[in-house]
Amino acid sequence: MTTVRKVPLRKCVGCQEMKPKRELIRVVHTPEDEVLIDPTGKRNGRGAYLCPNEACLLAAQKRKSLERALKISIPDVVYTQLSQQLQQAVKPS
């Protein structure tokens, strides 16, 4: 008898689609009030998930859904940094 493992699903704050957690990128609001991409998925803080593409990040920025999910107001500079980190995070895989 083989056990079927349940795949954890998370909702992308950009496109609002439920996807497997492993396919998404976690953005975390740390206790030090930083907003960072969490490649390990284990960093301490409040997390939100985004698809690994620019369109979802832009949609989340436009609708302020990332800000609501992380419960912090995010300046445009941080969105620019997230965009750069997102591109770097996607390229190696």
Automatic annotation (TrEMBL):
NCBIfam families for the chain: RNA_bind_RnpM
Species assigned in the record: Alicyclobacillus acidoterrestris (strain ATCC 49025 / DSM 3922 / CIP 106132 / NCIMB 13137 / GD3B)
Highest taxon of source: Bacteria
Pfam families assigned: YlxR
SUPFAM superfamilies: YlxR-like
InterPro entries linked: YlxR, YlxR-like_sf, YlxR_dom
Name of the featured protein: YlxR family protein
